[in-house]
Amino acid sequence: EDRKPANVLLVVDTSGSMNDENRLVRAKQGLEAFFREVSPNDRVGLMIFSDLIQPLVPVIPFREGQRRLRGTVRSLIADGGTAVYDATLQGYGIVRELGDSTRINAVVVLTDGEDTDSSSPAGEVAERLAAQGDSASRVRVFTIAYSPEAEGAKEALDEFAKASGGQSYQGDTEDIESVYKSISSFF
User: Fold this and answer.
1) Would the pTM of this model clear 0.85, i.e. be above it?
2) At a CB cut-off of 8 Å and minimum separation 6, what does 168 contact?
3) Confidence band for 148, pLDDT divided at 50, 70 and 90
4) Burial of 71 (0-12, 13-18, 19+ CB in 10 A)
5) Could you give the CA distance from residue 9 to residue 134 in angstroms, rounded to a whole number?
């Protein structure tokens, strides 16, 4: 109750490899764990990506949008490539456009593999995130390298988190719920 409310955009990899080891099924459980921790005063949105980026639920008050968010998460399916760099940049842009200095602003990105489809290189994404400085409306990026296959993307994910003042995590199907709970403690 005492903390600032948050604007959080959840960015979830739905590439074809998310079918492996029930990754998408477990990621959905992780998102549900995150939703249980969210304050009713927070605003939450959802964007998915494979080789295509799809904003599905805008950043809206959780109290009013939780049913829509939960239903949308339940219906996610995995298919396609991986454009995590472009998705991170687009997610950052969506939250940045809110220009909200009265709230914590964050993007939470989960991917299970290396980027195969982005037009923006990792270095450019990190530069854009770092360029925002430490302003009141700063958007922090929290990243989750979700599987051994994400090892190739981990360095870039670490860099994105560091450049934005966020945090990077390593997760797998066994601990993804606790990873999302840890991230929720920042909001």
Assistant:
1) yes
2) 142, 143, 144, 145, 154, 157, 158, 160, 161, 162
3) confident
4) exposed
5) 19
